[in-house]
Amino acid sequence: MSADAPRAVPPYVQITQHYRDLIRNGELKDGDRLPSTRQLIEQWHVAHATAAKVISILRAEGLVTTVPGGGGGTVVTAGTLQRAPRDRMIAVRQRGRIYPPNEHASIVSADLVPAPDHVAEALGVATGSPVIRRRRVTYRDDTPVSASTSWFAGELATAAPDLLVRQRLTQGTPGYIEQQTGRVMSRGRDHVTAGAADHNAAQDLAIPEGSPVLLGRNWVTDQDGEVIEYGEHLSAAGRWSVYEYDLG
User: Fold this and answer.
1) Would you call 228 helix, strand, or coil by DSSP?
2) Would you say the C-alpha torsion 201, 204, 206, 212 has a positive or negative sign?
3) Tens of pLDDT along 110-165?
């Protein structure tokens, strides 16, 4: 066989990815039960070692946990997943919704403000010029888990006025901007670092000031490479950001 010939994906990889996707897109939620090893063997027609490896990998990734006892089994623990801007963009493109069933966002402010220096630089506008600022807090059930701010050039206030309305956009921000302007959010870039919660972050996430948080910033560009949105986000400790990539 040639070294360049395509290789079949091992069954355990396919099955693991199947359940990863169900967990990440919210079809399997916290507390939902995964099929047992025996059920995986029957459903997927694989050996016991393959089924056991699937459970072991998902457990090692923190997506599931094994509950001891006769009424236990393997249950989902997706509350540890952090959905970064990349994940939200992909979710809205693929499924038409950003959040899984047990998460929701509340828009806490939507206004036109003078651009701070770093925002002006990120958007390519003059410092102090009007920019749109949309702040939201994301809840898992009733617990705040992340907060984010999206910034847009002030010129969008005319073309896309609902960006200044303190309500969620039913088609999502990317869909709304595309509908109103024809500009398509095509590429994104995310930066993340560790930090400590300042006063505002502590209030948003209901945690003490100084608590560890994951801080991020992101740029989203249109089909012409122009920045549409600059974002800043933070999440409480204990939430994992997950990235997958090909090395071939």
Assistant:
1) strand
2) negative
3) 999 999 999 999 999 999 999 999 999 988 888 898 999 999 999 999 999 999 99
Burial of 180 (C-beta count, 10 Å sphere; 0-12/13-18/19+): middle
Q: Is the dihedral of CA 107, 213, 242, 80 positive or negative?
A: negative
pLDDT in tens, 71-82: 668 988 876 666
Q: Which two tokens stand for residue 18?
A: 């199947």
Q: Can you tell me the distance from the alpha carbon of 119 to that of 93, in angstroms, rounded to the nearest whole number?
A: 26
Burial class (CB in 10 A: 0-12, 13-18, 19+), 60: exposed
What is each CA distance from 165 to 59, 89, 133, 220, in whole angstroms? 42, 21, 11, 21
Which is nearest to 220 in space by CA: 190, 178, 179? 190
C-alpha atoms less than 13 angstroms from C-alpha of 82 in its C-beta half-sphere: 22
Q: Would you call 5 exposed, middle or buried from its count of C-beta atoms within 10 A (0-12, 13-18, 19+)?
A: exposed
Predicted TM-score of the model (pTM): 0.75
**Which amino acid would we find at residue 164?**
L
Q: Please give the structure tokens belonging to residue 22.
A: 């169900």
Tokens linked to 48: 């016991």
Structure tokens at 42: 């029957």
CA 33 to chain centre: 23
Judge whether 83 and 90 are in contact, CB under 8 Å: no
